[in-house]
């Protein structure tokens, strides 16, 4: 009977360990995009001057980008490389407006801008090139 309990306990520890590992494999790391700013209630905020934000970060496909911002004056718009360069969203862009958006990093480059109030031209944009 005691051996059964020990075996069951060992199996449960193994199952919990596998769940922890598989959760990180499915969702990856979460990166709060931005920097500290007084206008944001969160510690890290989607704001201007972010074009260098990805430097020195190892972001891979499957990781999650967390965008925190005021949805009344900002958004997060997924664009192509030209839209990133020109700060123009193009036709039918995917626009996030909740103020707390979580976006999984795809395979290949992805580009995000704020399409409101000319903020993209002030550096409220970020290009993510996942590491291999």
Task: Describe the protein.
Helices cover about 25% and strands about 20% of the residues. It has two helices and seven strands, in the order H-E-E-E-H-E-E-E-E. The strands form two sheets. Strands 4-3-6-7 form a four-stranded antiparallel β-sheet. The termini are far apart. This is Phytocyanin domain-containing protein. Keywords: Membrane, Transmembrane, Transmembrane helix.
What would the average pLDDT be, to the nearest integer? 83
CATH architecture: Sandwich
- SS summary, helix count: 2
Task: Give the % helix.
Answer: 10-25%
The rounded Rg comes to 20 Å
CATH domain class: Mainly Beta
- Corresponding CATH superfamily: Cupredoxins -  blue copper proteins
Beta strands, count? 7
Number of individual domains: 1
Query: Proportion of β residues?
Result: 15-25%
Major β-sheet strand ordering: 4-3-6-7
SSE string: HEEEHEEEE
The low-pLDDT segments are 8-24
Shape: globular
CATH fold group: Immunoglobulin-like
Could you say which structural class the secondary elements and strand pairing correspond to? alpha+beta
Q: Largest sheet, if any?
A: 4 strands, antiparallel
Distance between the termini: 50 Å
Keywords: Membrane, Transmembrane, Transmembrane helix
Organism: Phaseolus vulgaris (Kidney bean)
GO molecular function: electron transfer activity
InterPro entries: Cupredoxin (IPR008972), Phytocyanin-like (IPR039391), Phytocyanin_dom (IPR003245), Plantacyanin (IPR041844)
